[in-house]
Amino acid sequence: TDVNWGPLDALIIDTPPGTSDEHLSVVTYLQDSAMDGAVIVTTPQEVSLMDVRKEINFCRKVKLPILGVIENMSGFVCPSCGHVEHIFAPSTGGAEAMCKQMDVPFLGRIPLDGRVTQAGDT
């Protein structure tokens, strides 16, 4: 079924990790649109960063510009004191180090914050 979204400022497509058929389908389906590029989301763990490296190479192969990488679940914010604990401490420097190695913009970190979950439940 075709969907007419109308004019969009942004279209967010959440895909599974890696470079599966879904990624190729999305790029193929949207190839005639005026895509600015992809924002890739990872976590600090090396297993996630390995998938993101593949995704970056995939984007380069299909000539999809990479706007940058965001590191999600980058620490846990204590609701009492605000201290950030890195429960998924990166073993290889995390997304920021990977971005430097691969010459991709690093857009920032998003910590785990229970207030976000609470806000979504209300």
Blueprint of the fold:
Blueprint: H1 21-29, E1 38-42, H2 46-61, E2 66-77, E3 84-85, H3 94-102, E4 106-112, H4 114-121
Parallel strand pairs: 1-2, 2-4
Antiparallel strand pairs: 2-3
Helix pairs in contact: 2-3
Describe the protein's architecture and organization.
- The structure is a single chain.
- The protein has 122 residues and is an alpha/beta fold.
- The chain has a single domain (21-121), classed as P-loop containing nucleotide triphosphate hydrolases (Rossmann fold, 3-Layer(aba) Sandwich), CATH 3.40.50.
- It contains 4 helices and 4 strands; from the N terminus they run H-E-H-E-E-H-E-H.
- The chain has helices spanning 21-29, 46-61, 94-102, 114-121; strands at 38-42, 66-77, 84-85, 106-112.
- Strands 1, 2, 3 and 4 form a 4-stranded mixed beta sheet that branches.
- A hairpin with a 6-residue loop joins strand 2 (66-77) and strand 3 (84-85).
- The radius of gyration is 16 Å and the shape is globular.
- The mean pLDDT is 85.
- One of its GO terms (molecular function) is ATP binding.
- It holds the Pfam family ParA.
- Keywords: ATP-binding, Iron, Iron-sulfur, Metal-binding, Nucleotide-binding.
Task: Summarize this structure as a short list of keywords or feature phrases.
alpha/beta; Rossmann fold; four-stranded mixed β-sheet; 4 helices
What's the gist of this structure?
With about 120 residues, the protein is of the alpha/beta class. The chain is built from 4 helices and 4 strands. It has one domain (about 20-120): Rossmann fold (3-Layer(aba) Sandwich), CATH 3.40.50.300.
